[in-house]
UniProtKB/TrEMBL annotation:
<dbReference type="InterPro" id="IPR009057">
    <property type="entry name" value="Homeodomain-like_sf"/>
</dbReference>
<keyword id="KW-0805">Transcription regulation</keyword>
<dbReference type="GO" id="GO:0000976">
    <property type="term" value="F:transcription cis-regulatory region binding"/>
</dbReference>
<dbReference type="GO" id="GO:0003700">
    <property type="term" value="F:DNA-binding transcription factor activity"/>
</dbReference>
<protein>
    <submittedName>
        <fullName>DNA-binding transcriptional regulator, AcrR family</fullName>
    </submittedName>
</protein>
<dbReference type="InterPro" id="IPR050109">
    <property type="entry name" value="HTH-type_TetR-like_transc_reg"/>
</dbReference>
<keyword id="KW-0804">Transcription</keyword>
<dbReference type="Pfam" id="PF00440">
    <property type="entry name" value="TetR_N"/>
</dbReference>
<keyword id="KW-0238">DNA-binding</keyword>
<dbReference type="InterPro" id="IPR001647">
    <property type="entry name" value="HTH_TetR"/>
</dbReference>
């Protein structure tokens, strides 16, 4: 019997590749019966909301475990840099979640998810401000742009992994080095 998390993982993976998939198609793709999927999620909207809620929980956990709030008030460049490294690596591991949440319009149509997303992004913008203040990040662009850039990278990670252009075992290192060092030679 598939667990709720297994169903969410399967649905997320399939929806990232095929966003318009119906519940019947999702059940078949996951390898469960429609009744099993409907026992956990009455509607497709309920399933998508559950994916969004789990993604927000992972985002909150990432912020807590990597010390984002502490780094936002630090004047130590090493503290901010290590926080950014940890946060980017954790977000990369969960890139499939974040890419879905950032590209599925139903997330911004759900007031509760939008409020959580906005609050979490505000905390990360403050981390970008700390990065700029300590000289870790460039200060000639808006801090909010740097936050948006991170989430654009998460969508790119999802697509690169799916296409086979990025190896899962090296993805976090590539993201961290690209974000902190840029793409210039």
């Amino acid at each position: 019997m598939a667990t709720r998390d297994q169903l969410l993982d399967g649905a997320l993976h399939h929806l990232n590749a095929h966003p318009a998939t119906s519940m019947s198609e999702l059940a078949a793709a996951i390898g469960v019966g429609r009744a099993t999927l409907h026992r956990h999620f009455a509607t497709r909207a309920d399933l998508v909301r559950a994916i969004g809620e789990r993604s927000m929980e992972r985002w909150e956990t990432t912020q807590a475990t990597t010390g984002v709030r502490e780094a936002t008030v630090s004047d130590d460049a090493d503290v901010v840099r290590e926080c950014l490294r940890g946060m980017l690596a954790a977000l990369t591991r969960d890139a499939e979640d974040f890419a879905f949440v950032l590209t599925d319009d139903s997330m911004i149509e759900d007031a509760g998810l939008l409020a959580r997303m906005t609050a979490l992004q505000a905390v990360e913008v403050e981390l970008m401000v700390a990065g700029q203040r300590t000289g870790v990040l460039r200060s000639d662009v808006p801090a909010a742009w740097l936050s948006h850039l991170v989430y654009g990278v998460m969508v790119s990670v999802r697509e690169a992994l799916r296409a086979g252009d990025l190896a899962p075992r090296t993805a976090a290192d590539v993201v961290v080095s690209t974000f902190l060092s840029g793409a210039s030679a």
